[in-house]
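Reopening this one. Same input as before:
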Amino acid sequence: MTSDVDYLRIATEEAFAPPELVRLWQSMLADGTCISLTCPGTQVLDRDRAVAMARLANDQLAEACRRHPDRFSGLTAVAPQDPEEAAREIERGAAELGLVGVIINSHTQGEYTDDPKFWPIFEAAQALDTPIYLHPNTPPRNMIGPMLEAGLDSAIYGFAVETGLHLLRIITAGVFDRFPRLRIVAGHLGEALPYRLDFMHAATVKAGRYESMKPIGRKPSEYLRSNVWVTTSGMPWAPAIMFCREVLGPDRVMYAMDYPYEYVPEEVTMQDQLPLDAAAKKAFFQDIAEQVFGLSVSRSPQPAGGVR
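Same output, byte for byte:
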């Protein structure tokens, strides 16, 4: 597939896994571009193996980025099982390895990062001004049952429900009030969150039915427009893309493919044909990703289909 467009297509949710980690996953099963560590990452492992595997994955990814600086940038994998160590790994990824963000594959064995025990991760990301990509995970045991019996537990529905829940928990727990400069990127056009939030959130807080639901500084939609960016990974549908641009703002929506899980050239063509002028299209494919992930060196436009 070739093209003469005058913008780069920087795909921002593309995945890999070290063979060592794949073997670990396989053993667990037997027992019972920006590129990032694929789901479930290290988050299904025990603490010590998770920490070691995060470091190994980051070293391998950094080496690939060094070998192909015109093609790849990478996100730091962490082991939330040890939040303090995860914060140190974020610092190592940024300072030593040249990685441009953080990847968290949603929940960690059923626990979510709105719990303050995980907040050293947010503190480190804010201090380093490095974005966190909140990637889907399989719903935890206490959520997955009705989805699993209907075959709806994975990308067709369950991933979006689980990750949207996680992001909304972060918002309603006041994480962005505590860390106002924290930046989070969510794939799949925000996992269905850019919809009906503000009224029902206010009503729930007012009703006082839930101890966990406290007032926060702003409306949920305002945090989405100030602290959250979304990508088009797995959502190559013009009406949904244009809706998110209208609701969140055109500077909040950027291109992604979701390689290797979804890699269809026709989807790139469709997004090339979005009803945007030249400047808006360049921002959508290139400029926003460069800004959010700090990709300071613009490269020459290349044919579609490449993974960055």
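So the earlier flakiness isn't reproducible anymore. For the record, The chain has a mean pLDDT of 92.
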